[in-house]
Amino acid sequence: MSEDRLDPRVRELTYRLMEMAPDAPPFPEEAIAMSVPVTKQRPPMLVWAAAAAAVVLLVGLPLLLFRGGDEPTAPATTIAAPDTTTTTVVDEPTTTMAPTTVAPGVPTVVEFNIYVFSEAITTYLGDPALVPLQLEEEVPSEPGSDTAVGRWDLALDALFDQGPTFGAYWSAIPELSGEWSGSLDGSVLEVDLPAEFEAGGGTMMMTSRLAQVVFTATQFDGIDSVLFKIAGEVVEVFSGEGIILDGPQTRMDYVDILPLIFLDEPAIGSRVSSPATLSGIANVFEATVQFEIVNESGNLINADFTTATCGTGCWGEFSAQAPFFVPEETPGEIVVYEEAALDGSRVNEIRYPVTLLPGGEEEPPTTTTLPTTDTTLPGEAFDIGPTEGDVVAVIGVAHDDVLNLRDGPGVGYEPLLGLNPLADDLVATGRHRLLESSIWTELTADGVTGWVNSSYIGYLGGVDDLTSFVVSEMGGIPEAETMLDLGTMVAESFGQDEGGFRYEMVIPPTVGDLGEVTFDVVGLLDDAQRGWRLHIFGQPTEGGEGFSLKSVEGMALCGRGVTEDGLCI
Amino acid sequence: MGVMTDEEIYRKYADDLVRFATGLVGPFDAQDVVTDACLRSFRSKTWPQVHNHRAYLYRSVLNHARSHHRSTLRRRVREMKAASPAKSWPHEVDVDVLAAVDRLSVQQRAAIVLTYWEDLSAAEVAARLRISEGSVKRHLARARSRLREYLDE
User: Fold this and answer.
1) pLDDT for position A150
2) How high is the pLDDT of residue B16?
3) CA separation for the pair A316, A402 (Å, rounded)
4) Residues A559, A458: contact at Cβ < 8 Å?
5) CA A442/CA A373 separation, integer angstroms
6) Structure letter (DSSP) for residue A6
7) What pLDDT digit, counting tens, does each position of A2-51 carry?
8) How far is residue B131's CA from residue B142's CA, in Å, rounded to a whole number?
9) Which positions 48-107 of B are in contact with A (Cβ < 8 Å)?
């Protein structure tokens, strides 16, 4: 370690990197509504109460009037001085929060989507595709009106106000200095826009603009189409690009800018509770849409498929319910994809980051179904394996597969969780069962306890340079047309005479200046070292038609444990 | 111990977090990642029970950087290519350094920044990121070998 710390070139590189750091952004405004002392509980339904409390601090009124539910309110003496904490909340609508009136005028949080473009998700032509992005806004509730639904005005306002780029998303809509207005005529929303809406050029850009408005408006029940007006006149030919608008526009007029699987619900950034409703439209082979819910550690907590109402060349609607369990609120991803007709590989995959919420219908599966005493478990108790509290990793599972964590020892038990092939934070309980032809180990992952086949777990050990070993085994520096082939050749060279040997690609190839691919080779050597995780680097050959081996780093995959120095015990 | 508001906590750690994020995702997106990570933390139900705010926020930034890394790699590469020092960017963009760091996984970047910039020991890095000390050493070893590889080219 001390020797490493002296590596001056790496240190200099780090310093140069740090010099590029921008200034810290200001405290995010969205958090101001939440800016109360951190010891205070904030039940999610009482967001407005927290906002009110922050404002009360500013004006110096007693906090006790705003107690949210049963949670104890922080004693007044522990509240930080207002001058440092609340100077930025002056824009809050203080007048709507007079302590004597709670029901009318209290802000409600309204959720809606705006439809924007993502670089990461593309249409079948490879252009950026339209995706739903969830926003929320606090609005004062008005007596007699249902503020939580149908606020197309808020959604379109937010869409028009959104800058051209934000995070990984962008909007085709130009900045509008003039006013817009909208009115609902039956199921047609008439949107009257200032002339700037037509400014600029490019057919793609102009079509994208219209699509964003159509999708944002028609997310609401009761609105099926949008009639565009510019400065009071119904638009028949839009912009200098001459896009002909044949009356009110519907979503189906703009399917070309959607990904082939368009997931409309849940939107990106939304908070999802179990069971999740997944719905949208798709144009996929045999109308089959595969979906997954993945938690923060990359583990699969639901995988299933659903069928669209039309497929193989036509757009159909799909909708599915997906139960899942997370022990606490956590970031996650909703993934939808299609299995290619040709080879079953994953195509047209899209991933939406969301927040997964605990609770819902799905109980923690282990508390109800896991056999609790050893006598009810199949097989016999076995005391060789990771001891209680040991942290182990998944080994020898292909990158597009998962290791099932089951609710009992044996393949007959239901999977509770699909473990990511690179999961390295599984905690052993110390219980093992010996079955006829396999050993099963009990583990906890993401708050769920279950059983896995112990041949797929191990301890991650130290890293060695195996390049010269591989080169001498193979009798020279290997070359191959692709990194996949090169990796396979290297992996195979480890198991020439071994009976239980197998290998799996755990990270698919990436190609930059160098190519890189990762394979697990297992079932060789002995009980202490069960295999290697091989990080294989290739460099393009001179002719540029393939890769030659540059280096192989092997991380030891250990069966019984690892010493301080990374050696298998 | 006095009670700190979210804003005070933010002010205390924001500069360090932005530097950490710069190490993970580069200077262009560091602010976004920090803002997202902090917002998400402040809204989390577990936040009121968190004792070590700094470690929690660092992990949150790391998690956001990981998902960010996956989804925007393509865009970042384009930005990097397009970046010219003449642009309005306040600090000079060191394209060589970004290219070197681009070879590392997000975890490896985290290990490098905490070790070489914040001068933490492997055990301290492990505690900050809540991973094992062995993982920290592995990340460091791989990161260093890749950086040296780049420097030697």
Assistant:
1) 63
2) 92
3) 30
4) yes
5) 13
6) T
7) 444 557 888 888 888 888 888 888 887 666 544 333 333 333 333 333 33
8) 16
9) 48, 50, 53, 63-64, 67-68, 70-72, 74-75, 90-94, 97-98, 100-103
Neighbour order of strands in the sheet with A169-170: A128-140, A107-122, A169-170, A165-166
Cα A137 vs. chain centroid, distance in angstroms? 23
Going by C-alpha positions, the residue among A321, A330, A433 that lies closest to residue A376 is A433
Please state the φ and ψ torsions of residue A412, each to the nearest 5 degrees. -75, -15
Q: Using one digit for the tens of pLDDT, what is the confidence trace for B46-105?
A: 777 777 888 889 988 887 787 665 444 444 444 444 444 333 344 566 777 888 888 888
ipTM comes to: 0.86
Write out the two tokens for A525.
Answer: 């050597």
CA distances from A269 to A107, A141, A394, A526 (A): 21, 24, 30, 47
> Which pLDDT value is given to residue A175?
83
pTM above 0.90, yes or no: no
Residue B25 in contact with partner chain A when CB distance is under 8 A: no
Structure tokens belonging to residue A242: 């001459």
The Cα B136–Cα B108 span in angstroms is: 8
Task: Please count the residues of chain B.
Answer: 153
- Write the CB contacts of A475 (distance below 8 Å, at least 6 apart in sequence): none
B5 and A35: CB-CB below 8 Å?
yes
Nearest Cα to B25, choosing from B115, B106, B99, B125?
A: B106
Q: Is the confidence at residue B26, as pLDDT, over 80?
A: yes
A368 interface with B at CB cutoff 8 Å? no
